Amino acid sequence: MHQLSHLAQVDPEIYQITLAELHRQQSTLEMIASENFTSLAVMEAAGTVLTNKYAEGVPEKRYYGGCETVDKAEQLAIERAKQLFGAYHVNVQAHSGAQANMAAYLAAGLQAGDTIMGMDLSHGGHLTHGSPVNFSGLYFNIVSYGVDAETKRLNYENIRALALANKPKMIICGASAYPRVIDFQAFRAIADEVGAVLLADIAHIAGLVVAGEHPSPFPHCHLVTTTTHKTLRGPRGGILMAADESFAKAIDKATFPGIQGGPLMHVIAAKAVAFKEALSPSFKQYAKQVRLNAQALATALTDAGLQLTTGGTDTHLLVIDLTANNISGKEGQALLEEIGITANKNTIPNDPRSPFVTSGIRLGTPALTTRGFDETAMKTLGGLIASAILNPSQPLAPLRQAVEALGANFPLYPELPAHYGCPVKEAATCV
Question: Any catalytic annotation for residue 54?
Answer without folding.
Answer: yes
